[in-house]
Amino acid sequence: MMGFSWKLFYVFGILLWGFSQRWRTVESNGGSFSCGFPAIYNFGDSNSDTGGISAAMSEILSPNGETFFGHPAGRACDGRLIIDFIAENLKLPYLSAYLDSVGTNFRHGANFATGGSSIRPPGYSPFNLWVQISQFIQFKARTTSLYNQLTLNRRNPLTISNLPRPAEFSQALYTIDIGQNDLAHGFQYTTVKQVLASIPDIIGQLPQAIHTLYNEGARFFWVHNTGPIGCLPVSVLYEISKPWNLDKNGCVRLQNEVAVEFNRQLKDMISQLRAQLPFARFTYVDVYSAKYTLVSDAKNLGFVEAVNFCCGNCMKKGMANGTVYGNPCNHPSKHISWDGIHYSQAANTWVAERILNGSFSDPPLSIQSACHHQTTIL
To answer: What pLDDT is recorded for position 4?
Structure first.
C-alpha cells in the first residue's frame, strides 16, 4: 500500500511538472522561450533576395552593399535586408541564395527568393513562387540523398558540413515574403479596379504552395503581408502632380487601399490554413503597419521625407549628358528608401526591430517563439 502511494505521488509529480512546462510555454509566447530553429528556408522577391537574381540574370553592382558588406552582396540595398535580421535574431548565418553557385553554404537553410518574383505568372521575373517551391523540392531531395550517401560512405566531411541535415527540414522556419510584385505589375499594365479583382486569384495560389511545403515536412511558417506599395517613391513620383490621389502622408491612396485588401484576404487565408493543417504553426506578420508607421513618422524618427530616395538607378552606374548616375547620397541611414523601390538598411533595421518581437504579428509571438500556439489559460 505504501509502495502504491509513492507511485501515485510520483505520477502526480510528473503531471504537475508537465503542467508547469505547458505554463512556461504559454508564458514564453512573449519571446523568452526559444524554439531553436536550426535553419531558415525563404521564399520571396527582392525584399528578401540575398543574391538569387544577381547570380542568375542581372548582377547587382555597387554602390549596393556599401553600408554593411562594403561591396555588392546580391541585395538591392545598401546593406542588410529584413531576412538578414531574421537570421541574426535566430543566431544563424545569412542565407545563401539557391541560385548562387559561388561560396554557398546551405547547412542552415537556403534562400529561394529572387528579385522581381511574384506569386503567379506573368511578372517581372520567371522565378515565381511555384518555381521557387519546385526548386525547394529538388533541393531537399538532392541534398538529402547526397548527405545520406556521404554519411554512409564516411567520405568528405567538409562537403557534409555544407549540407542541411535531413531531419532538420521539419524543424526549420519557413519564411514567405511575396506578393508586392503581383500588385505592382498589375498597377503598371492594368487598372486599379482590375488589380483589385485579381486579388482572390493571387491569394488563391498560396494554399496549394503551402500545402506542398507542408507535405515536404514544413511545419513552422512566418508569413509577411505586403507593404504599403503606394508609399514607395517610384509610386508617388507618378502621382505627385495629382495631390488628390495622395493621402495625408503623401502616399498613393488607391494603391495602399489595394494593398490593405490584399493583406485582409491573405490573413483570412492563413486562418483557413490553421484549420486545415493543425500540426502547422502560422505567424502572420503585419509588415504593412510597421512600414506605414515608419513612413508616417519619418521626420520624428530621424529620416528625411519618405518620398526622397538615396540612390537613383542603383542597379547600374552610367553617364548621361555628362552627369554620372548611380551614385548614392552621402547619408543612406537618413533615408527610408534606398533606390525608390527598396528600403535602406536603416529602414529595414527599424522595421525588423518591431516585427521580430511579435508586436505586429498574429498571434503576437516573437520569431523565436513561432513554433508555439498562442494559448489562453482561464
So the answer is: 43
Strand partners, 288: none
Could you confirm whether 46 is annotated as catalytic?
yes
- 111 beta partners: 42, 97
Catalytic residue among 45, 339, 344, 366: 339
What distances in angstroms separate CA 197 from CA 200, 254, 262, one per listed residue? 7, 14, 10
Q: What DSSP state is assigned to residue 337?
A: B
Catalytic residue among 108, 185, 224, 342: 342
Domain boundaries of the chain, sorted by first residue: 40-369
Which residue stretches of the chain have pLDDT < 50? 1-31, 319-325, 375-378
The per-residue DSSP string of 47-116 comes to: TS-SSHHHHHTS---TTTTTTTTSS--S-SSSS--HHHHHHHHTT-PPPPBTT--SS---TTEEE---TT
State the sign of the Cα–Cα–Cα–Cα dihedral 361, 170, 46, 350.
positive
- The span from the CA of 54 to the CA of 74, in Å, is 5
Omega before 363 cis (within 30°)? yes
What's the fold here for domain 40-369? Rossmann fold (3.40.50)
pLDDT at res. 373: 79
The per-residue pLDDT for 318 is 52
Q: What tens digit of pLDDT does each residue of 5-37 get?
A: 444 444 344 434 343 333 333 333 343 578 999
pTM for the full predicted model: 0.88
